[in-house]
Amino acid sequence: MHSDLIQQLRAREQNGLLRRRQTLEGPQTSHISMAGQKFLSFCSNDYLGLANHPALIAAACEGAQQYGVGASASHLISGHCLAHQVLEEKLADFVGFPKALLFSNGYMANIGIVTALLGRGDAVFADKLNHASLNDAALLSRAKLIRYPHLDLSVLAQRLAASKAKRKLVMSDAVFSMDGDIAPVAELLALCEQYDAWLLLDDAHGFGVLGKQGQGILFSDDCFNFNSPNIIYMATLGKAAGVQGAFVAAQPAVIETLIQFARSYIYTTATPALLSHSLLKSLELIAQETWRRDQLAQLIIKLKHELQSLRWKLSPSTTPIQPLIIGDSKMALKISEALRAQGILVPSIRPPTVPQGSARLRISLSALHCEEDIVRLTTALIGLSKSSDLLI
């Protein structure tokens, strides 16, 4: 068995697909330290630059003084603290839903939602490029998994119309994590209402970023003020919010069902209350400091302008996720390593995370970046594109 594992790992390395961890030696910010070396980082999902914000650090310390450092029990035993309850109420109000429920992370939230609401005889309809947590949730639910081509709503409509399932759920990333494109929420919702299906939106990369006050995809220009009972909204709190966790917002009956039946909620220790106490401050900053989203918008424009003549092309994303499509996995890895040698961190994303032939550099922008950071990155990429070592 061990020799099989070794061969499998060697094959992955030979194909340029072996992943390696990197150890951060300080806080998450635009300039980080690893192995005693300083790097300009385009790696994190800290889109608003809140992960090391002094106000959040102070709130965490205050929360630790009030609640200690561990919840020490599940929410349904004695681990549900006042900070959890207040945060759930604030989150529900922030995104315009009657109820919200905290989870330890987005993966557990998606697993909990789908497995609690669906089972044998039901059907899940999934965008082909959905996050792995949504796919795994569908498989664990034992409902029939029906996938449709990325953003192809005509195929989705056909498959919804043909389904005889008792319960139906359409699930989609709101902002697709490896492409940065945005789901057509209005059209998805119309189909779900037509065919009596729930719409589960995973807004992990939109919450805090989209909408005038950062409330997410439902408050973006094209999708403002959706309050349909068909929507189940999930967002994470460890990306733009800068801390840790996730929440689900929906109608009261859905939330109560999750409390009673979501195994990833019931059978796990609650997150430390100090994190929820910190997130209360994070919500304030997300709503009030609109300059952070304005800064992101300017950086996106700057990046696209600087790279418009590059032989590798950016995907048409308007979000902080800016994928530079390379194609070949080994080449993507080689470019990433060449940038690292220049003190710039940009991760190479390869199959199976993305489809074969679409390996890329996933450039993640933060409000903490400045225009000089963008120029440094783009200058390096332009230089590498002309390098004889990388010409293929």
Write the layout of secondary structure elements.
Elements: H1 2-14, E1 31-34, E2 37-41, H2 54-67, H3 75-79, H4 82-95, E3 99-103, H5 106-117, E4 123-127, H6 132-141, E5 144-148, H7 153-162, E6 168-173, H8 185-194, E7 198-202, E8 231-236, E9 246-250, H9 252-261, H10 263-266, H11 273-288, H12 291-306, E10 313-314, E11 321-327, H13 329-341, E12 344-345, E13 348-349, E14 359-364, H14 371-385
Parallel strand pairs: 2-12, 4-5, 4-6, 6-7, 7-8
Antiparallel strand pairs: 1-2, 3-9, 8-9, 10-11, 11-14, 13-14
Helix pairs in contact: 2-11, 4-11, 5-6, 5-9, 12-14
Keywords for this entry:
392 residues; 2 domains; 14 helices; alpha/beta; Aspartate Aminotransferase, domain 2; Aspartate Aminotransferase, domain 1; 7-stranded mixed sheet
Radius of gyration: 21 Å
Strand order of the largest sheet: 3-9-8-7-6-4-5
Order of helices and strands: HEEHHHEHEHEHEHEEEHHHHEEHEEEH
Shape: globular
Q: In total, how many beta strands?
A: 14
- Give the CATH level 1 class of the largest domain: Alpha Beta
Distance between the termini: 39 Å
Q: Which quaternary structure do these chains form?
A: single chain
Any low-confidence stretches, pLDDT <50, length ≥5?
none
Q: Helix segment count?
A: 14
Helicity, in percent? Answer: 40-55%
Description:
The chain has 392 residues and is α/β, with parallel strands linked by helices. The protein folds into 2 domains: 25-48 and 290-390, Aspartate Aminotransferase, domain 1; 54-288, Type I PLP-dependent aspartate aminotransferase-like (Major domain) (Aspartate Aminotransferase, domain 2, 3-Layer(aba) Sandwich). It has 14 helices and 14 strands. The strands form 3 sheets. It has a 7-stranded mixed β-sheet, with helices on both faces. A 4-stranded antiparallel β-sheet has the order 10-11-14-13. Strand 6 (168-173), helix 8 (185-194) and strand 7 form a beta-alpha-beta unit. Helix 12 packs parallel to helix 14 (371-385). The mean pLDDT is 94.
